[in-house]
Amino acid sequence: MPPRTVKLRAATVAAVLALGTTLLAASPQAGAVAEPVPVTDYCQGQCDDILPPGENGNATLVEILGNKAFGTHPAHSDDQLDRYNGLVAGHSGLTDQKLTDFFNDASFGVPKDQVESVTSPRDDVTITRDKASGVPHIKGTTRYGTEFGAGFAAGQDRLWLMDLFRHIGRGELTSFAGGALANQGLEQQFWPQAPYTEEDLEAQVEQIRTREGARGEQAMADAQAYVDGINAYREKSKKGRYFPGEYVLTGKIDAITNAGEIQPFKLTDLISIASVVGGQFGGGGGGEVQAALSLLAAQQKYGVAEGTEVWESFRQREDPEAVLTIHDGTSFPYAGKPDKARGTALPDAGSVTAEPLIYDRTGSAGTDRKAPVKAPGALKKAQGIYDDGVIPEGSLPGSGSGAQKRGMSNALLVSGKRTASGNPVAVFGPQTGYFAPQLMMLQELQGPGISARGVSFAGVGMYIQMGRGQDYAWSATSAGQDITDTYAVDLCEPDGSTPSKDSTHYLYRGSCTAMETLERTNSWKPTVADSTAKGSYRMQVRRTNYGIVTHRATVGGKPVAYTSLRTTYRHEADSIIGFQMLNDPSYVKDAATFQRAASNIDYAFNWFYADSRTAAYYNSGMNPVRAPGVDPALPVRAGRAYEWQGYEPAVNTAAYTPFAEHPHSSGQDYYISWNNRQAKGYAAAGFGLGAVHRGDLLDDRVAKLVEEGGVTRASLTRAMAEAAVTDLRGEQLLPELLKVIRSRPVTDPELNGAVQQLESWWAAGSERRENSPGSHTYTHADAVRIMDAWWPKLVEAEFRPGLGDGLYGALTDSLATDESPAASHGPSGAHSGSAFQYGWWGFVDKDLRQVLGQSVKGPLAKSYCGSGDPDSCRDALLTSLKRAVAEPATEVYPGDDNCKAGEQWCSDSIVHRPLGGIGQKAIHWQNRPTYQQVVEFPAHR
Questions:
Q1: Which of these, 87, 158, 520, 877, is most buried using a 10 Å CB contact count?
Q2: When comparing pLDDT for 735 and 823, which is higher?
Q3: Beta partners for 371?
Q4: pLDDT digit string (tens) for 143-156?
């Protein structure tokens, strides 16, 4: 029995007994046995939420063509967009009474006069949609009926999106939706992270069903009911000819004869979708090969000892100045640097090569060559809607050329001791990018053992994943702690001959073992939607008992393969148990039971909770217990001595750190999270968690509110909304930059004018905000332009001369210097909302304070700006500033498909990337959760 199963049963034995056989008795044949049991809503009108652009994510062919020709939108496809956007201008005067001007009323149920429609796909479930937003309120008298209804509603709102994502997870996107270069890139980035055979996917379903007790059996019964509901809608919409029009435009169904098919969904599709969602938002660690290369570059420049010291000062595993979620000093040691490392496997200089992925290209593979088909006249308006891919490059977190895996999401919670009402207040939600439709969908589920409203990722919506229950609410941010390691496996030849870097066998516990080859062959041809010319290729990865091969190298002159092993591989959907518990009102009754439920979620997330009495926090994830002396930040040799403790490769299980060792807390005065470090002792899994972080934008504001006392839903929302339009560089770093520059008079009139503009911007709050609603012009537009042009130049001027080209390049490969919201900056891609997560702000802050002679905890090993000389540093900053001032707006904001060159507001703006045929207007930039709740429970069961 794997350790995780032991942990689960120990934590939930009482709940399993309570669950009993009642829920398992519900079957597909069950009819309506009674009216749904009335549910008490303890939020009493004080729960609100929002998910732009709108609930409806399906559009028929006629609706798509109408959108392209006339700009019309299907009902409820865009009716939450203006309210979400309106908070930018409306937050300064926000009161509790005005919250529903910008959020939905998230109360349970639908008042009779607000009912828009009622659907009963079975006699044991109803789907009631409200007039305001079209959200499905699903009520079942049986467990099966409730979950069937959830699947049916998912089909109504997200059928095409679910189909896309099951094909992305399976590495079959180009064969399904077309060969656009962005589609090629997307499947090439996602599939190697979670490559599975169909047998692998089936094994994961069976493992949950048979090894997770009564809850596991119930989870798979719920999942099957959900799939049955999707398929029922799939068949009904096909016969009724109101299925999503994208199936016609991609050549799946003939618009005239209705010939063609929407492939049935199955349980393994849910595993595939879960691998995409969990891998992108709930992963953590990895990247040890790149870390090793930057360490080698430091050692090459400074020597081993000094170079290691310099590298560690940039790596910032446990920066004492970093903002923390648990700020009361409690320590949770995990993944720290060992006193004396064992088994570290640094590559020989120049020996690292990436493992090839693509083979046997034909036709347009690897290119963007088009061969448009002759579209029928009626379809011409929609021709080429996917020529740039169904998901444009860089739109998904962690996708796109040079992109880093972004955590995203934020949370602000204040204890009842510091609120006006005496009840905790929470403003929180996941920041998952902007799409049309969204990756998530809103729903309410009420049935035996389930009572919740909130969001679920489309395709895995059996349970609410973030939302509210009867008397509590919860949400999550990506945690990113280290649950992925890199191993160096020694290569061998089965005949005993000398191995090379290309060898396909490796030593596993003393035996020369063949690597397993996993393949996907994809082909495509042009359609109305995607004009990419005919082509094909084969994707191939090698799988070992230590994970997927990512690189080849030599270590000490001997050939090795570097492999990536994450704890959640082969466990993509095991977290379903935790979500089931969070939806179960008989299980979650207080902060303690919430934390136990969250502990059964295997992906790396920070979970937050609020009821009428307590605000609480728990960090989830399958944190492996590593062998003593192993350094998790760098590659380690493969072998029993360095494996995770209790490691079983066949099912990828190991010993995991227990509940008490995960950061957790109840009743702290306040909590904030914006993908910052969790707690003292909990080491950062990568670069960038230092003295300045976007979490400071929240922490400073919430700390001030708490000090003043009397916090309300409106005041906490205002704090979030203000941070959402603030430039981190301006607020946190301009004071130090200006102090260096103003150490002597600036004699150049042009430069002095620029400095004055920056000073005025900082004094006004460093906001990127319109001077009036709808003006599309920032109040301090010139200062914002100067900062956008200056930042990358000043970082290079400050650090490159001292680090040298090689080390500077290696460190920027590990951590990009900037992540401005502007289209031309950062790894997050254009128009994505999320900004200022990754950058060199912490390095600049420490270095400037060192130059200024200020106290610095955890300083950089050396001073870089002007080699530590204040006058030379000032000269370097002014020289780079002069270059920035001279750069015209047309170069700072070069334009793209959405904006003309020089359009600053537009370059920042959020664009909901169309995943289907319906487009949306651009909205004001906000660094804010996509789905967001504002909650304050005045009562409890």
A1: 158
A2: 735
A3: none
A4: 999 999 999 999 99
